[in-house]
Every structure is written in structure tokens, then in C-alpha cells.
Automatic annotation (TrEMBL), chain A:
SUPFAM superfamilies: Eukaryotic type KH-domain (KH-domain type I), Nucleic acid-binding proteins. Residues 67-86 form the Exosome complex component N-terminal domain. CDD domains: S1_Rrp4 (cd05789). Pfam families: ECR1_N, S1_RRP4. Residues 1-78 are annotated as: Disordered. This is Exosome complex component N-terminal domain-containing protein. Belongs to the RRP4 family.
Automatic annotation (TrEMBL), chain B:
GO terms for molecular function: mRNA 3'-UTR AU-rich region binding. PANTHER family: EXOSOME COMPLEX COMPONENT RRP42 (PTHR11097:SF8), EXOSOME COMPLEX EXONUCLEASE RIBOSOMAL RNA PROCESSING PROTEIN (PTHR11097). Transmembrane segments: none annotated. It is found in: Cytoplasm; Nucleus, Nucleolus. InterPro entries: Exosome_comp_Rrp42_subfam, PNPase/RNase_PH_dom_sf, Ribosomal_Su5_D2-typ_SF. It comes from Endocarpon pusillum. This is Ribosomal RNA-processing protein 42. GO terms for biological process: exonucleolytic trimming to generate mature 3'-end of 5.8S rRNA from tricistronic rRNA transcript (SSU-rRNA, 5.8S rRNA, LSU-rRNA); nuclear mRNA surveillance; nuclear polyadenylation-dependent rRNA catabolic process; rRNA catabolic process; TRAMP-dependent tRNA surveillance pathway; U1 snRNA 3'-end processing; U4 snRNA 3'-end processing; U5 snRNA 3'-end processing. One of its GO terms (cellular component) is cytoplasmic exosome (RNase complex). Keywords: Cytoplasm, Exosome. Residues 247-278 are annotated as: Disordered. Belongs to the RNase PH family.
Length: 404, 415
């Protein structure tokens, strides 16, 4: 397999707008209760009956139009400026007329939202804006005094205080200076973790994270995928199940592994695809191993709900991967590709779409495998410049959009 | 605190370990499910900058883009007059049968043999890489531009065996092609702009992208046709339509594609190869491929994350040449790859954090499976040999990756 070099094309964009259920929704229409006049109908030619509702009069208010920063939205005084807009504060200058002072300009690129008289712009893409309770994935950037700095794709780095993590040896342990000195044994630079946003600073908007749950903590046994966070209502969906398990084809055969793959979708667009780990079964197994090891060294209490936490957290900060078989690895890679392609196609990413995309990808591979036996078909495909990935993307879009 | 440019972030030890183990499987399991010799698809366009002699824009799906512009200027060859005078003096003295060793040595040093075309000089090609966020004297820029410039200057000596004679033919280097006459030459300015999210200092990651972009730009570069002849001061034809390709497209056995390709630029004869002596090799600009090894696996076109776990990184420069001798009826214009250079590059896996084993700290040097250990670099001779074989092709049936890449480039240029 060599290299394929294609001329630049707009096929990627065509894919999105061409499909019947357009995957790029226009939030602009759905939430606005103010109808926008078409390009033809200016303020002078208002239809009767529509006059009660406020309307933007300028002729450039076209449907789905994307505003660019600096562009004048309106110069009528009746509108209020919202997010993503700017109005030059009209000082009490004599020469500035009232209308000039009310000029509202765009400061972000994106479609216009109107909510009654409030004008706002949702940017086409933006960084993640943390809010309390979000499940996010982050990467340690630096180790500071008694806290870590974490990159969560927000405008500012989040912080994870040492007091907000589970330490080995039980929840109710004091944080001593010794803990501060060995912070790198818990998290070091580059480590990935899953956490929850505990608070957002009022003045600066710095998010504070915590990992005080068995579901949170260091990530192992998998691959990191990064997709775009917010904007246009695409990317990872807030408020859906974000950590789920996908039963892959790796488990359907006679393979030793269960074939289950965990997917964690952070609201901030960071995703983690890893081998499925059942925490309780894992803990039991570990305990058994521990028991066998220290059989002669004395008795140990059995596992109960009171010490489950303790048993797990001894290993929770290691970065040692378990043994993962070839087929599971392949399915993990396939799921990663699916998530990336979903993001490329500007589709929502949640449990439902990921599973649909995955089954479409598996199906596509089966068909392509059949094709590959037929040498003529392969040659024809190569001659036509058909690129597998774009074909896969097309199928995934069809599966996701067509199904719902 | 602003997040550092998110590219500088390293992967976590758990990720590195997972990736490394995946790549050591047979066959290697890459994160995007490519085969080990498969390249990521590229988007390319050539001849897009109107004021350049040649230009190319190549982009990868991961957001890296390279824009290359080539500008040619006519420069006076430094010291040309002096050597000419020396040459004349020498001839006078030769006729007087007064051999002067000093003067003939000077003339030889100037490379001015009267019955041979003057040689080019490496300084006639200036190459400049620009990355918007980096300072001009950043080590990465200097590294990348030298890595790209060097193969352009080297020449490969190939021994061509024909039925009549066995001649060691020196394939012309790019600098030699820039000679107009003994006083004048073309000066090539190759300017490269790189837009990439992966430009952390010291990474060799953008190298193949830049190399392919430069190759395409050079292939699309055209020089105005000269009206002057011989030793006259250069006078060029204003008509851009009649300009000549710096690297003429290789002739195909089927004539049709070429004529259709030239239809846009003008009549066929404009594409004729500039006067060159027969038997000289027709070269193509070199390309540099990035190859990484993981244990005994060889992986081509590594993505940024794959490169982070490489045991060794190699930059392999390959040039292409085809024999233009036409007195044989069996035309084979297949481009034969010639190895120019293999360079080892320090692997980014050296500067990674060590993994933490589950069972607490272990004795230094002990290997725990599943725990990441920074690589120290180094490549075995046997693996190196296999890399070269994979690039150049081991046998006649196995064409090698370099050839595949060249065919891909060729298919793009013809389309």
C-alpha cells in the first residue's frame, strides 16, 4: 500500500450539507422566536402582520449566514447585545447620533442567535468552558506545590489540589508534607486522568477538579482521542452517559478477552478508549493474588464494602498496563477512528452515535474484505482514487444520520 | 495561567506503553489501522502562487500544511571573470609550451574545463523554512532546512552499462542544472511555510511533509526560456507560455497523457527537455522519508503519536533517476531510486517519563511488562539493512516504498 495524493476538494463539506438530515444543525433557527426577513424583504417592505415582532432590518440578515468579527449586526437602538457581540459605548458626545451609538458588531465568527431582543453569536468553535459537575478528561501539565495543573482544553489550566484526590490507604488520611513531596508518584507530567469539575473560580474562571470517586483517577490500558470541544452543537454531548462499555467483535469469537471496550467521553472533547475493566472483579482478583502471596504472612480480612476503596487505591496510581490481546487492541483502534470520523463529519458524539458508527465500521470492513479478494475490484478502486477512510466516513455518516 | 501550546504535552507513560506494545505486534497495529508501509493520504496542489516559478501546497489530515514557493533569479557567477581570464592565459601559455602548474591547478579548481559545462555551486540554492510561532534562529528551523537542503545538493554517481560502453555517468545535481553559462547562473530561493500543530522544538515529524511539498514544487517549477545563447549575457523570453520545466516530466511510453498534460501550458514542443547531452541521467528531485523502528518492526510515515514511542528514527533520502539514452529500442523509463543518505534522528521517546509499576518501585533496570521505560535510541545493523531494503526494494518484483511514493507523486502530477 503506497501513498495517495489527491487534489484539494470540498467533498468533506459536501458530505455534511448534502445528506438529508443535515448533521450541522442551525441553532439559529431552532431557538429564535424572531423570524428573520429574507434578503429581499428589507425594513421598507415588511409584510403586514409581522410588524409586531422585532426584526433585524439590514438586508444582510440571511438565513444561516455566518457573521465575521467586526461585522455590523444592526444599528437600530431596539436591540440588546449578548454574548459574542460588542457595542461601542456611546459617550455623551454631541456629534454621535443615537443610532450610531447603538451599533452592535460581531466579535466572534458564527451564526446569529436572537432571543426576543437579545442578539448573541454562538462561535463556530471554541474552547471548553468548564461548569460544575462536568465529567472531563485532563492531562497533567505541571506539578505545583500541593496541587497539579491540568490541561482540560479550557482557556485556562484547571487545578487539582492534592486534597481532592483519593490517597492510598483510605479516604480519611491526613495530607502530610510527605505526601506533598511524593506527588509525582500519584500524577506526573503527561498523565491522563478523568475527573469532575468541582468548582469554577468566580473571578478568573479557573476550574478546580476532584477525583474523589472510584470512577475517577488515572487512565490506563487505552488510547487517547481528542475531538473538538464545543461549538455549533457538535462534539461530545453534555448530559448523556459519558462512560460506557461497547461490546466489540473481538469478544464474539473464541478469543480469551471479553472483547469489551470502555469509552469515556469527556465534555471537553478529550476521549479515552480502553480495555474494559470491571472494578469489582479486578479488586477481587487482586485480593486473591495478594492473599496467595501473603498466605504465610498472616490472615487478611476479606473484601467488604468498607475496604474496597483501600484495596483498589493501592494500585490506582500505577501506570502499568494489563495484557491486552491483539483483537481487543484492534477494536480499540477502530473505535478511536470512529470517534475521530464522527468529529470530522461534524456529528454529535454520544453513546448512541459511537455505537452506531462502530457497527457501521465493522460492517464496512467485512465488505471491504470481500472486495479485496477480487483483485479487479481493488485495482478499480485504486484507479478511481477511492480512499478507504472517506468511504468509511460516508458509511458512518449514513448510519448515524439515517438511523436517527 | 494560559495552557502551554497544547502540542508540547507529552503522552502519559500508560499511553506510551500501550502504543509501543501495539506497534511491536506482528503485523504492527497502528492507531489508525494503517499497514506499516501505508502513508496517510495527502491533499496537494501545485502552481498556485502566481508570482513564483513553482509552488506547491500539501496538507495532511492531521492539520499540518506546507506551502512551498520557488523563485529563480539570474545571478552573476562569482569569480567567473577571473577564472575566464586565467583560462585564457592558460591557453596562451599552453600554446607557448610553458606548462604552468599553478595556473592549471587554479583553473582545475574553478572547474572550468573548456570542453565541459561549468559545475554548479551549492550556494546557488537557498532554502528557508518558516514556522509562524518559532523564532527565525530556532534549532528546529535550522535542522529542518538543512535536512531538506542537503539531499538537493548531493549527487549520486551511477554506473550505467550499455552494450557499447561502460561509462560512469555523473547524474547532474540540481546546482549543475542552474548553470546558464560560465558567467551567469540561476539562483533558486526555496521558501517553505509550515503550518502544523506539531512543531515542538526538536521534532522531526514535519520532515516528510516538507520534503514531499518541496519535491512537488520543484517538479512544477519552470524557468523562462533563454533567448541568448552560449556565453552571451542572459536574455529571457517574456512569454511564460514558452517556459521550460526545471525537471521535465519523464516521458511515458504512451504519449497521450503527456500531451494532455501539456495542453494547458502550450504546444508540445515547449515541454521538450532542455538541451542536454545524451547519456546523461535524467534526475528527479530527491525525497526524504521518515522511517521509525519499534523492536524489529519498520514503520513508514509515522504519525506524531507513533513517533513518540520510536526505538529509532531514520531519515532516508532517496533520489530518482532514469536513463535518457535513446539509442536502445528498449525504453525503460522506470525511475530507479538511489539511496542518498540515511540519518539517525534522536527519538522523542528519550525524553518521556518513566511509568509507575503497580507493585511499587522495582530495582533499576528490571523490566516490568506493561510499564513504560524511556528508550535510549540506537538501531541494530540488521534492522538498518532491512530499512534500506524496504525503501529501495529488495528485488525486481518488490518495488520498495520509495518507488511507490514516487509513483504516487507521478500519478498526482499527471492527473
Amino acid at each position: 500500500m503506497g501513498i495517495s495524493i489527491l487534489p484539494p476538494s470540498d467533498s468533506d463539506d459536501d458530505l455534511g450539507s448534502g445528506s438529508p438530515g443535515s448533521p450541522s444543525p442551525s441553532p439559529h433557527d431552532s431557538s429564535s422566536d424572531t423570524s428573520m426577513p429574507d434578503a429581499a424583504s428589507t425594513s421598507s417592505s415588511r409584510r403586514p402582520g409581522a410588524g409586531k415582532r422585532p426584526k433585524l432590518s439590514s438586508s444582510q440578515r440571511r438565513r444561516n449566514r455566518i457573521l465575521v468579527p467586526g461585522e455590523t449586526i444592526t444599528d437600530e437602538a431596539q436591540w440588546m447585545r449578548g454574548h459574542g457581540t460588542f457595542s461601542a459605548a456611546a459617550p455623551s458626545s454631541s456629534h454621535a447620533s443615537a443610532s450610531a451609538g447603538a451599533t452592535i458588531t460581531a466579535t466572534l465568527p458564527g451564526p446569529l442567535h436572537t432571543t426576543n431582543k437579545l442578539l448573541s453569536i454562538t462561535p463556530l468553535r471554541s474552547r471548553y468552558h468548564p461548569s460544575i459537575g462536568d465529567l472531563v478528561l485532563g492531562r497533567i501539565v505541571s506539578v505545583d506545590r500541593a496541587r497539579w495543573r491540568v490541561d482540560i482544553a479550557a482557556p485556562l489550566l484547571a487545578q487539582l489540589p492534592l486534597s481532592s484526590i483519593n490517597l492510598p490507604g483510605g479516604v480519611l488520611r491526613r495530607r502530610t508534607t510527605a505526601d506533598e513531596l511524593q506527588m509525582r508518584t500519584y500524577f506526573q507530567e503527561g498523565d491522563l486522568l478523568v475527573a469532575e469539575v468541582q468548582g469554577v473560580g468566580n473571578s478568573d474562571g479557573v476550574a478546580t477538579l476532584h477525583t474523589r470517586s472510584l470512577r475517577y483517577g488515572k487512565l490506563r490500558n487505552g488510547v487517547f482521542v481528542r475531538v473538538m470541544g464545543e461549538g455549533r452543537g457538535v462534539g461530545v454531548v453534555r448530559g448523556r452517559r459519558q462512560v460506557f462499555t461497547v461490546a466489540t467483535v473481538a469478544g464474539s469469537g473464541s478469543g480469551s478477552g471479553s472483547g469489551e471496550v470502555d469509552v469515556a467521553l469527556g465534555v471537553n472533547g478529550y476521549c479515552w478508549v480502553s480495555r474494559h475493566v470491571d472494578p469489582e472483579a479486578d479488586a477481587l482478583e487482586k485480593e486473591k493474588a495478594g492473599k496467595a502471596k501473603m498466605a504465610g504472612a498472616g490472615s487478611r480480612v476479606g473484601m467488604s464494602i468498607s475496604n474496597l476503596d483501600e484495596l483498589v487505591s493501592n494500585e490506582i496510581y500505577s501506570s502499568q498496563n494489563d495484557e491486552i490481546d491483539y483483537r481487543t487492541r484492534k477494536e480499540i483502534a477502530r473505535l478511536c477512528t470512529c470517534i475521530t470520523l464522527l468529529a470530522d463529519a461534524a456529528l454529535k458524539i454520544d453513546e448512541d452515535t459511537v455505537i452506531k458508527a462502530y457497527s457501521a465500521a465493522v460492517e464496512a470492513e467485512m465488505e471491504m474484505m470481500v472486495d479485496e479478494d477480487d483483485e479487479d475490484a481493488v485495482a478499480a478502486a485504486a484507479a478511481a482514487g477511492v480512499d478507504r477512510k472517506s468511504e468509511l466516513k460516508k458509511r458512518i455518516v449514513q448510519a448515524v444520520v439515517g438511523g436517527g | 495561567m494560559m495552557p502551554a501550546t497544547s502540542t508540547a504535552t507529552t503522552l502519559s507513560p500508560a499511553e506510551l506503553s500501550y502504543l509501543h506494545t501495539s506497534l511491536t505486534q506482528t503485523p504492527p497495529l497502528r492507531p489508525d489501522l494503517r499497514s506499516s508501509t501505508e502513508f496517510r493520504p495527502l491533499r496537494a496542489e501545485t502552481d498556485l502562487l502566481p508570482t513564483c516559478n513553482g509552488s506547491a501546497h500539501v496538507s495532511l489530515t492531521d492539520g499540518s500544511e506546507a506551502l512551498v514557493g520557488i523563485k529563480a533569479e539570474v545571478h552573476r557567477t562569482a569569480g567567473a571573470n577571473v577564472t575566464k581570464r586565467l583560462d585564457e592565459e592558460m591557453r596562451e601559455k599552453m600554446s607557448l609550451d610553458e606548462p604552468s602548474s599553478t595556473i592549471s591547478a587554479a583553473a582545475a579548481a574553478a572547474g572550468l574545463d573548456s570542453n565541459r559545462k561549468p559545475r554548479g555551486h551549492p550556494d546557488w540554492i537557498s532554502l528557508n523554512v518558516d514556522i509562524s510561532t518559532l523564532r527565525d534562529d530556532d534549532a528546529l528551523l535550522i535542522f529542518l532546512s538543512e535536512m531538506l537542503r542537503e539531499p538537493l545538493l548531493t549527487t549520486s554517481t551511477t554506473t550505467t552499462t550499455t552494450t557499447t560502453t561502460t561509462t560512469a555517468t555523473r547524474s547532474s545535481s540540481l546546482a549543475d542544472m542552474l548553470v546558464i553559462n560560465s558567467n551567469w547562473h540561476w539562483h533558486l530561493h526555496i521558501d517553505i511555510l509550515l503550518l502544523s500543530p506539531f512543531t515542538a522544538s526538536g521534532t522531526s515529524y514535519p520532515l516528510p511533509l516538507l520534503s514531499l511539498a518541496t519535491h512537488l514544487a520543484l517538479r512544477s517549477a519552470r524557468l523562462p526560456k533563454l533567448k541568448s545563447q552560449g556565453e552571451e549575457d542572459p536574455l529571457v523570453d517574456d512569454d511564460w507560455e514558452s517556459s521550460l520545466f526545471l525537471f521535465p516530466p519523464p516521458p511515458t511510453s504512451a504519449r497521450k497523457p503527456e500531451s494532455s498534460a501539456s495542453g494547458k501550458a502550450g504546444p508540445n514542443e515547449q515541454h521538450s527537455i532542455p538541451p542536454r547531452e545524451a547519456g546523461r541521467l535524467l534526475t528527479m528531485p530527491p525525497i526524504t522519508l521518515l522511517v521509525m523502528t519499534v523492536n524489529s518492526n519498520i514503520i513508514f510515515d509515522p504519525s506524531h503519536s507513533e513517533l513518540a514511542v520510536a526505538d529509532a528514527v531514520l531519515a532516508v533520502s532517496v533520489s530518482f533517476s532514469s536513463d535518457t539514452t535513446t539509442h536502445h529500442h528498449h525504453h525503460h523509463h522506470a525511475q530507479t531510486p538511489t539511496l542518498l543518505a540515511v540519518r539517525t534522528i534522536e527519538t522523542p521517546a528519550r525524553d518521556t517519563m518513566r511509568g509507575v509499576p503497580a507493585a511499587g518501585e522495582v530495582v533499576e533496570g528490571d523490566l516490568v511488562p506493561g510499564v513504560w521505560r524511556p528508550r535510549v535510541g540506537g538501531v541494530k545493523r540488521e534492522v538498518l539493512k532491512r530499512v534500506v531494503r524496504a525503501v529501495l526494494g529488495a528485488s525486481a518484483d518488490d518495488s520498495g516504498v520509495a518507488r511507490e511514493v514516487f509513483d504516487g507523486l507521478e500519478a498526482f502530477l499527471r492527473s
